[in-house]
Design goal:
- The protein has 211 residues and is mainly alpha-helical.
- Helix 1 (11-35) packs across helix 2, helix 1 packs across helix 6 (100-128) and helix 4 runs antiparallel to helix 6.
- It is built from ten helices and no strands.
- The radius of gyration is 21 Å and the shape is elongated.
- 73% of the residues lie in helices and 0% in strands.
- The chain has two domains: 11-81, Tetracycline Repressor, domain 2; 83-211, Orthogonal Bundle (Tetracycline Repressor, domain 2).
Length: 211
């Protein structure tokens, strides 16, 4: 009697399942952090919402602070690709615009789409920062990264020779208007459509930064 033929191990199916689990975990964590709060959300809560075991969450993300960090990265980029925002094609197209008025207008549209993905989560992290050290550390990193990003935009704007203010002022104006607060107040609370908000933000930047 011959030995049974062994089936080859299908690692691709296991990889796809792990990828799907990560996607579900990240989505569940995002929704719970926003609706329930970071401090009141446990790994067990995330696992139950995602339909996986808590051990699966720990295996994928190690702990809740690491999960929060990854949830933020995905919200900023809009996907799970490890590509910095300034290096993404949409942002490269914005920075390639030589007319600074048109660039700021396009950047306002881009930023509005980013706020749609991140503003609620940013507010949740900010709300937890006073009592949760991990949230406070995440908030500091978010603000630092955003300041670095706006410094890059300001350098590029200054290089066009079209700024009416100092490069540092341009950086600070952009930084102070891109943390999600304005978007939340006008879009979520005053019910502005995103299109109206983007057009208004573009005009604000143009009037504040150009002659």
């Amino acid at each position: 009697m011959s030995d049974p033929v062994k089936r080859p191990y299908d690692s691709s199916r296991r990889r796809e399942q792990a990828k799907e689990n990560r996607r579900r975990i990240l989505g569940a964590a995002h929704d719970l952090f926003v609706t329930r709060g970071y401090g009141r959300t446990t790994i067990a809560d995330v696992a139950a919402e995602a339909g996986v075991a808590p051990e699966t969450v720990y295996a994928a993300f190690k702990n809740k602070p690491a999960l929060l960090h990854r949830v933020w990265d995905v919200a900023v980029g809009g996907d799970d690709q490890d590509v910095p925002l300034l290096a993404r094609p949409e942002m490269r197209a914005v920075l390639a615009e030589s007319d600074l008025r048109a660039r700021l207008t396009a950047f306002a549209v881009f930023n509005t789409a980013t706020m749609r993905r991140t503003a609620r989560l940013h507010l949740a992290v900010r709300g937890a920062a006073a009592s949760e050290p991990a949230a406070a550390a995440m908030l500091g990193e978010i603000d630092r990264q955003r300041l670095e990003s706006m410094a890059g935009h300001a350098r590029a704007a200054a290089a066009t020779g079209q700024l009416a203010v100092a490069e540092e002022e341009c950086r600070d104006v952009l930084w102070s208007t891109t943390d999600g607060t304005l978007w939340h107040q006008l879009v979520e609370r005053r019910e502005w459509p995103d299109e109206r908000y983007a057009a208004w933000l573009g005009r604000l930047w143009v009037s504040a930064l150009l002659a």
